Amino acid sequence: MSGIDHISRRILQVLAREGRISNIELADRVGLSPSACLRRVQELERSGVIAGYRAVLNPAALGVGFVAYVTVGLSEHSKHAQDKFEKSISRSPEVRECHNITGSVEYLLRVEARDLADFKHFHTEVLGALPQVKSITSYVVMGSPKDERG
């Protein structure tokens, strides 16, 4: 899709908040006919602008009461060390996001656990036990006044 005009941007804004909205309601909100709106949504999907739809889960309802962002520095700066770390961390259900970043460390993780004791277990027995890990710094989430992850 070459350019995204203001109507397509509005469609994207509405869908980002309400992915299950009907096409008729969406068309009404953005000022298009239902058929024109559907064509635009299909084009946004086909071109990859809309990569998918998902349910937004309530962490508390799933027993998650502890969230932390964790930076991880590796002991060796090589592709092999990164691959091994990424493979290991992909098997950890506590890690909900893993980002390879720039700066003084290689990774930023979003970790969800039931409570502090579960986080400590993950920190010490899982993350701290990986041979590629040199440094770990944890930032405990106290609240999230703005969170637009879908």
Description:
By secondary structure, the protein is an alpha+beta fold. The protein has two domains: 6-46, Arc Repressor Mutant, subunit A (Orthogonal Bundle); 60-140, Alpha-Beta Plaits, CATH 3.30.70. Helix content is 38%, strand content 20%. Strands 2-3-1-4 form a four-stranded antiparallel β-sheet. Strand 2 (95-100) and strand 3 (107-113) form a beta hairpin. The radius of gyration is 20 Å and the shape is elongated.
Strand order of the largest sheet: 2-3-1-4
Average of pLDDT: 95
Secondary structure tally, helices: 5
The radius of gyration over CA amounts to 20 Å
Secondary structure: number of strands: 4
CATH class of the largest domain: Alpha Beta
Examine the secondary-structure arrangement and name the CATH architecture of the largest domain: 2-Layer Sandwich
Query: How are helices and strands ordered from N to C?
Result: HHHEHEEHE
Short synopsis of the structure:
The protein has 150 residues and is of the alpha+beta class. It has five helices and four strands. It has two domains: 6-46, Winged helix-like DNA-binding domain superfamily/Winged helix DNA-binding domain (Arc Repressor Mutant, subunit A, Orthogonal Bundle); 60-140, 2-Layer Sandwich (Alpha-Beta Plaits), CATH 3.30.70.920.
Sum up the structure in keywords.
150 residues, alpha+beta, Arc Repressor Mutant, subunit A, Alpha-Beta Plaits, 4-stranded antiparallel beta sheet, 5 helices
Architecture blueprint of SSEs:
Elements: H1 6-17, H2 23-30, H3 34-46, E1 66-74, H4 79-90, E2 95-100, E3 107-113, H5 116-127, E4 133-140
Antiparallel strand pairs: 1-3, 1-4, 2-3
Helix pairs in contact: 1-2, 2-3
